[in-house]
Amino acid sequence: xxxxxxxxxxxxxxxxxxxxxxxxxxxxxxxxxxxxxxxxxxxxxxxxxxxxxxxxxxxxxxxxxxxxxxxxxxxxxxxxxxxxxxxxxxxxxxxxxxxxxxxxxxxxxxxxxxxxxxxxxxxxxxxxxxxxxxxxxxxxxxxxxxxxxxxxxxxxxxxxxxxxxxxxxxxxxxxxxxxxxxxxxxxxxxxxxxxxxxxxxxxxxxxxxxxxxxxxxxxxxxxxxxxxxxxxxxxxxxxxxxxxxxxxxxxxxxxxxxxxxxxxxxxxxxxxxxxxxxxxxxxxxxxxxxxxxxxxxxxxxxxxxxxxxxxxxxxxxxxxxxxxxxxxxxxxxxxxxxxxxxxx
Amino acid sequence: xxxxxxxxxxxxxxxxxxxxxxxxxxxxxxxxxxxxxxxxxxxxxxxxxxxxxxxxxxxxxxxxxxxxxxxxxxxxxxxxxxxxxxxxxxxxxxxxxxxxxxxxxxxxxxxxxxxxxxxxxxxxxxxxxxxxxxxxxxxxxxxxxxxxxxxxxxxxxxxxxxxxxxxxxxxxxxxxxxxxxxxxxxxxxxxxxxxxxxxxxxxxxxxxxxxxxxxxxxxxxxxxxxxxxxxxxxxxxxxxxxxxxxxxxxxxxxxxxxxxxxxxxxxxxxxxxxxxxxxxxxxxxxxxxxxxxxxxxxxxxxxxxxxxxxxxxxxxxxxxxxxxxxxxxxxxxxxxxxxxxxxx
Amino acid sequence: xxxxxxxxxxxxxxxxxxxxxxxxxxxxxxxxxxxxxxxxxxxxxxxxxxxxxxxxxxxxxxxxxxxxxxxxxxxxxxxxxxxxxxxxxxxxxxxxxxxxxxxxxxxxxxxxxxxxxxxxxxxxxxxxxxxxxxxxxxxxxxxxxxxxxxxxxxxxxxxxxxxxxxxxxxxxxxxxxxxxxxxxxxxxxxxxxxxxxxxxxxxxxxxxxxxxxxxxxxxxxxxxxxxxxxxxxxxxxxxxxxxxxxxxxxxxxxxxxxxxxxxxxxxxxxxxxxxxxxxxxxxxxxxxxxxxxxxxxxxxxxxxxxxxxxxxxxxxxxxxxxxxxxxxxxxxxxxxxxxxxxxx
Amino acid sequence: xxxxxxxxxxxxxxxxxxxxxxxxxxxxxxxxxxxxxxxxxxxxxxxxxxxxxxxxxxxxxxxxxxxxxxxxxxxxxxxxxxxxxxxxxxxxxxxxxxxxxxxxxxxxxxxxxxxxxxxxxxxxxxxxxxxxxxxxxxxxxxxxxxxxxxxxxxxxxxxxxxxxxxxxxxxxxxxxxxxxxxxxxxxxxxxxxxxxxxxxxxxxxxxxxxxxxxxxxxxxxxxxxxxxxxxxxxxxxxxxxxxxxxxxxxxxxxxxxxxxxxxxxxxxxxxxxxxxxxxxxxxxxxxxxxxxxxxxxxxxxxxxxxxxxxxxxxxxxxxxxxxxxxxxxxxxxxxxxxxxxxxx
Lengths: 344, 344, 344, 344
Description:
Four copies of one chain form a homotetramer.
Chain A: E1 2-7, H1 12-22, E2 27-33, H2 42-45, H3 62-66, E3 70-73, H4 80-89, E4 93-96, H5 106-113, E5 126-128, H6 131-134, E6 143-145, H7 149-163, E7 173-178, H8 193-196, E8 201-202, H9 210-222, E9 229-234, E10 241-248, H10 255-265, E11 272-274, E12 292-300, E13 303-310, H11 314-329
């Protein structure tokens, strides 16, 4: 059993992380912090945990955190960077579900997040924790930067064709749709049900913080810098991301060969499910599960459309963090992540 | 490991049963039938099961069913009654999630379900499978009548006060709200999203088939016949039942004593959670879990309001069936039912 | 054409009022105030008004308000009471959509709203503006207290039987369900879509501010003080209230006589629609319309169930305010309120 | 007053048409047919029309239809083609909201709709009724082919740049999202709320019937054949289409010049609203209104993203049909179409 702490436990990623860790056989969730809710029982805020979790939120306490084997940060950007270096120095491993260590370039961070990076020395320690593309680097890492939700869906969808060098890098468009939980557990008028239900809209079309993160990772996969048109939309639903990914092939591929590239690329992956050619995955097919389901289409020769769905809180956040934890500590990668998606 | 079969596996209760049984460590789901989908892989209909279940729907095959240790019926009323007697005769145990064996009086069945009961001899074998009220009779049963979803929420909410003889039996009103999955996985215009979303309405106010079932069980608890005003409503949501239960006390009780009656009645129950006095449980707090959460209020002296929430597909159907199966076969009652509700 | 102002125009009732007034042929919406949005174009906040409304929010300006023929208050309680007396003194008529002038007893106001009433002298000027029960008093009024949303649905549902003296006043239970817009356009975590969608819960079961308002008006209709069990629930939908109203008859009535009481009571009302006996109205049948649809049931002799649905923002707020305005100024009562409900 | 008939009145487009026509000052809806519901009062099926409409569904009666000034077809493809030629011969004008007369090429019709066109002679009479692009031809038409919902949103969004010759025709991708009412009022399992709510998926990615219709009209606008990648998605909401339209500029344009192309192209259109540059329209901003709101973005030089939203049942179907009717009969184009969208 390892002892783990969560910093920032009152948001959706912290809440989902606690749901998963509570059921994990090798983990004792020992500490969960929240400045605002210090002293409140966790299960009074999250009644689904009644009978499963006896923790009480504590204030941020770096001493207590230092006694953990692993600390998860489920905090807005700018928080982890101030606490992580000391924890690392004390030998605590860290998985940051926020954005502080995802961009390798601190100048890019400053540009997109509007603040200087105050722990740029630690960037070199950070491993981008998308196991299906970076697994080899994770077990030995001290600091894992857990990917954003959109980047997870987009990168997994594009990876096979980019790794195979088959896509024209000038033609990538990711039209993405997210449930409202992706915006966090925040008191904002635009997120209340009468504003967000029975409607949808795009946002950040001219620029969104996940774009440089996606471009960074896709460029690594492609072996050359590339750019992406990234268009997120807010959907009237709770969980789920659907990435509709467009690109043109550099040279002709039959449908069967196209499908084979995906099937072979992900052949042994426990959390990526390649559907039959020209399928249409629904987000609910992964609700609550750590699975990414992918289908590929070629509506006209050379025009590829990849459909990639995840649960933004699981494979897009907390589930992926548990997967990274399993890799860090040598547990079976699927341990604690076997839940079947909840349908309907 | 026991081998189990499901008759009628394409509805929501069959689908949820399969989700739970697939993850149950002592069960091998060996057979699932569907006249309409015979030959179809189960996971092509229910993609959440991809990677978890290799079954294919078979046609109804009584020989194959007879080789099972246990058969679940997840069928419309009128189906199980024609197959159950023979299975029982062959030594197969049966849990019927439909309505055929819930009413002890075959005349009442005929009146409410519009058909004669064709297996009334088997009614004597049937045990009403609500473990919190009938647990003692279940382990030795050959045939378990799994309760309806509304009855589960209503009976659990009223049981403590009725068993204590505290309620005036003339004053019971159950105002119930159900998600649309309670109406089944059926191609009906009134259930399509544009009809059922962003709206609500009552139905069956002048009479609903779950009323005699509830009255039968509440009368047993009260030790005398009683009647109930039962008002179901269709809610614009997928899962969940919220029962708002009204009644007047026969004699004065303090709030603390009222709460104590509930706490003591359910003190050792793993699947009933009594909230602090005057709480307001949300259906989402039990989404996907086999839990019934109950809160009690006394807005004015003598006027009691009990709030009882369940997931209609879990504690209201498939989860309760697994709980009954655990009792039938001597497994720990909570085995395979430890899932934490999915929030948000 | 009359010139009207709206104080507090950024909430849902103000927004809906502006939608209705913009289309009203005898009204010029001349002024709309909002402390927070002063200087913002109204249609930048509410894009449905683009091309229909050129107003800009102004700060609260009592001088400008005094130049209006009529001022609507769409403000939280406690605001109108500080501005209304002076406007009345200047000859401006007022319709308050908030709660300040609904309770005739300032002590009751203080008890339920947690503040002393600072304009109790004006309470005597206030007419409770539910035209179907108080129409005679409205045309000559200077100050109209527009009813709450729940009270509108509940009072209209009970009125025929109470006015006829047919209900046992000890047996009234109003189990009410409201869409989330009833909670206002407010940045609260519990209202965001991931919290409020696909779930439901009761609230204020032990006491809600609309209860004394309903009891006050029902007592007047009944001619004697009565009490009510009032149970509101938050529904995962945008608009709509469904009141499920219970009561016992004092003496036997046939179903036909029961129906006739409703049909005759509301025979000439343009905005109350009595459905055929034992119908089940859906809230969507009044979405966007100023209509209350009512159906009555008698499931067992003597047990009455009345179903009453309104759009909480129209008949439950802004539409009713326009109806009151029409009465105040001698316009046809239905003017500007002829919209057909939006289905689906 | 003109007398109009509707063939196929029980679907969503027929229902919405009736809502609009009932409120139209120059129209008497005189006849509405439905084979399945003949003899049923319209307002018993659509209770929002209670008090507004006294019609009863009649069976298909070509004699009665021939007495109308105008007949709308709100029928599945294949119905209108068998009745329209005779009506035209009898001097009745026709607006077909179905697909029978949208494709000018009967071979394309046969390919995409799986049946031979049985009235190909009438294709020459048909005018594609998207007033913003084909207005000049409508007043004199005998037969108007009312556009599909997706085509309306997509064509209006691309038209300014295509008409200006600014788009590279090899780069068009229309990623479209539709509410479930777009699938019609049909009893299909995949449309019931538990299947369609809180989830989303693409469909028809490899080919959808609206693609040839869009390509036909866009090619006319561009003056040369072009192809489009069209990707529809089913959204968990009732009404609304959001088209996210991608394309690359043939030559550089400043943001201001790009915006000016849209503003000038639609400068005098009553039903197209060009938002400020880089806005994000929400579908709810047009709910119930005959408006198309459009915003344009240029996230990187040369990469254009156009966002176009409509209510699929209004501007995407019934409202557009009324707009066409107004043009056919010389009424003001906006008559009966002034409704303000319902928000929230």
